[in-house]
Every structure is written in structure tokens, then in C-alpha cells.
Write a structure and sequence with these properties.
It is a single chain. This protein has 360 residues and is an alpha+beta fold. It folds into four domains: 85 residues, conserved putative lor/sdh protein from methanococcus maripaludis s2 fold (Beta Barrel), CATH 2.40.420.20; 93 residues, Elongation Factor Tu (Ef-tu), domain 3 (Beta Barrel), CATH 2.40.30.170; 55 residues, Beta Barrel (OB fold (Dihydrolipoamide Acetyltransferase, E2P)); 76 residues, Helix Hairpins (Orthogonal Bundle), CATH 1.10.287. 29% of the residues lie in helices and 41% in strands. It is built from four helices and 20 strands. The strands form four sheets. The protein has a six-stranded antiparallel β-barrel with strand order 2-9-13-11-10-14. A four-stranded antiparallel β-sheet has the order 6-5-3-8, with no helix packed on it. The radius of gyration is 42 Å and the shape is elongated. The relative contact order is 0.18.
Length: 360
Amino acid sequence: MKRLFIALFILILLGAGIYGLLRVLPENEGSGSGGITTDTAAVRDLRTVVPASGEVLPLLSSIVKSEISGRIIKIPVIEGETVERDQVLLELDRTSLETRLREAERNLEAEKLRLEKSQRNHTRLKELYEREFVGEQEYLDAQTDLRLAELNLEIAQTRLEDAAEDLSKTTIRAPHDGVITRMDVVEGQVISGATSVSNGTDLLTIAQLNELYMEASINEVDVEKLELGQSAFIRFDAIPDFEVEGEISVIAPSARRDGDVRVFPVEVIFEVADNRVRPGISATVEIPIASVEDAISVLLSAVFNHEGESIVYVQNPNGWERRKVTVGINDLQHVEILSGLEAGETVALSRPPEFRRSDG
């Protein structure tokens, strides 16, 4: 009998607890607003932005190639090293080109001797022709031989200059100041020169990292709100809580198709303030187009459209009141309320039940 009384007492307690819980839950849900989530109008600073994502790129970057083919015999620099303009980056084997240069020099000397001989012969035959000791044909042949000797000397001189120039190309130098961001070759490797029929071997990449830019695509509606020199704020996916200010340096004059949308490429240039910001990382840019300080605002989801007008549902002691408001700018989270609402008033984030049929 005692066990029966204990069991009945426990059941009574459980029943009372469940009853009390059921009474409490409806009162707490929706902050005491009948199950409706609410927001409170507050004074905030708002900024309307045009957002976009893209990639960080160096403002000046060069892929270094060789103009001639050959075997690499020396690479005095390493990846990540800072180099100056005209600094030696690598050297190619010079053996065959030095042989070619010496041959061109000897050929030039030979052509000079042939020219001297032709000049002497021409001078001699000219005197004899004027004294009518030789015929006209011999004199004309001497003139032709002299002209050919002069042309051959010019050709030999050009070949010597070409050989010397090709020899100088075995030493490859930096085209500008920067950092070697990529090294694609090793000593002993045979490379191809860049010619009209070949792109040649990519040797290394040099980039200036003191100034970078972000390339982003802006849709055709928002691009009309932008202008050159306008400020922009960039954040980086790999560097949380870090932001840098830049400015728009390029707005493409024509659109490109991105799926079903037409976009305009935009470049935002900025100075590097953190060595963690490197070319190739992804970034997000926000370009402010309007701002306001000390504005009364609510969450965007608190503003509804009813018969072409913006309305909010304001809580009062008797329930909910539908009220027309005038809205201003928004920051994709909050919207400015120009009139119709005061700071501290509570608004619904969904239509109250009594308005769902008439306003929905």
C-alpha cells in the first residue's frame, strides 16, 4: 500500500510539471509576442555597399623567358628572393655561341681583305681603262667585284653583330624590381627560346608585391554607381579580422557575360600592409555607395510591402498595429527608417496572424 501511495505521488508531480511547462512555453516564445519573432528599432550608422569577390593579383608581374634556346649552367637566385632591375637571374651555356662569334670575327677579317684586293684591282683597271690599255668589259667587271666585296663586308659585319647579341642573351637579367614568386627551371635543364613559332620555356616569375590589386566582377546595375578613385574595403578569406582600404583604379569599358548575367571587371588597387597578403589569395571587396549616421533602423525582414507601400507591424499594449514607413538606405542587414517609427519600438519579423489573410 505504501508503494502505491508513493507511485501516485510521483505521477501527480509529473502531471503538475508538464502542465506548468505547457503554460510557460507559449508565454516565452517570440519574446512575449504570441509566438512572433521581433526586433527593436535602434539608432545605428549604416553603409550601403556594392559587394564582390575576386582574386588578389600583383600590379606588375612578368614571366621571364629566354630569347634563345640552350642549357642552363647557373642560377644565382632562389624563389622568394628580392631582385633589382638588370640583376642576373640565370646563365646559359656559351660554348657554341662563342665559337660562332669567333667564326664571324674571322669571316669579317677575310671580307675586309677581299675588299682591299677589289679596291686595288679596281683602281688599277680604272687607270688602264682611262689610258685605253684594257677594254670596257674588264673595267666593268672590276666595278662589280668591288661592289660585291662591299656587300659581303656588310653581311659579315651584320653576322658578327648577331653572334655577339645572341651571346649576350645567354645572361638573362631581371626586367624590373620585384620578388621571384615562382621558379620553374633547374640547373642543367635545356630550355626553348621564345620565337615567332614558339612561346618558349617559362623560366621564373617576378612580381612587385608592394602594390597589389583585386580583380572583381560587378553586375551591370551596380557598376553605374561606381567611379574611378572611389574608396573600397577589402577583406581576405585567409586572414580573418583584417581589412585594408584601396581605391578603384580600373572600370572596364565593356561588359562580359558571366552565365546569364553581364558583368564589368573592376580593379581595386591597394598597398600591402601585411606580409600575409599575397598574390593568388581570394578576397571580398565592399564598395560604399551611400552612408548615414545615427539613423533609426530595423532588420530588413521587419519591413513588408503592402499595396506598393512599405509597412511595419508595431507592437502595442493591445496587440499589433500596421504602420506605413518611409525607408532609406540599407546595409544588407538593417534598413534605415526615415519616418513612421521611433527608436525603442518593437516590430514583428513576420506578419501577425490577424493580418496574414488581409495583407498576405
